[in-house]
């Protein structure tokens, strides 16, 4: 990353204090070169907050993000953790509680619009509460919402008003979970942006955070989005991102399978039913990926000969650039209600009660696991 130097001193944003750079718009401190002649010089994120009352997303890697989180525990703050319901395990910040200390955590679960309309929302809430507890996260409230449909945001703002008191508000989350949408809504509802952004510098703040002034002298602290490499959204090409990340309600696709059958999800991943009685599996996968059924003993040849063509996306070129597939094998016990979850791609619900031996093939590094059924 190219930083802008001014003699021996790096030029810093007069809004948030981050060192400025002109190369990577998605990283903290980005400023277009044509804006360098302006006085004072502020980064693009501060510019958007000041002029448009909008925050734009920037990202940092895990080590940088954990360094930022470690400072929250020393503050008196309300922490809002935004996660993606479609990719819950992939977007939940593991170990968040030990970083934020005794500060209250409000869990905002976004993208509820992706689940089918017949969903039992009480069951979803209970499922989320249990999963968060197993991750050691103590939440003061769980709010289900949809940034796209603007559902649940009024309740989320009510929860913030109820719990904030005289605290600053830190908003944390992974990339692509809708954090900026929520920040922008907070700005519209709480912040008096007639103040110059330069007055929002908070003593002791880390440079990668942006502090947005509230009317009562406190701040919304917009933290960068953490990049988790185990999610499909971080490894696919930009043109394939829309196929992997659904923007419409999921249409469950049920398949009656015999052992020895395979399902391909485009050319992104595959599911093998290795052993067990004839049973049903329901796929909750974005509509941009076509599901192709074949015999297990033909699956390797099918992929080798048709990835990027019959099995697409990705294209042949993009498939060659992706990590090699890794095989994950699971034995599903009798009587269990389980999902086989693939981070950022979706999940396969095991509907039978007779047990099954299954396997998932996915690019190396992608998180694949068995969990209690979400739906």
TrEMBL record:
Give one Pfam family: MMR_HSR1
Domain CP-type G, by residue range, is 66-229
**CDD domains named in the record:** YqeH (cd01855)
Query: Source organism's superkingdom?
Result: Bacteria
Q: InterPro entries, from UniProt?
A: G_CP_dom (IPR030378), GTP-bd (IPR006073), GTP-bd_ribosome_bgen_YqeH (IPR019988), Mito_lipid_metab_GTPase (IPR050896), NOA1/YqeH-like_C (IPR048422), P-loop_NTPase (IPR027417)
Protein name according to UniProt:
Ribosome biogenesis GTPase YqeH
Q: Which organism is it from?
A: Paenibacillus zeirhizosphaerae
Print the organism lineage. Answer: Bacteria, Bacillati, Bacillota, Bacilli, Bacillales
Provide the gene name from the record. yqeH
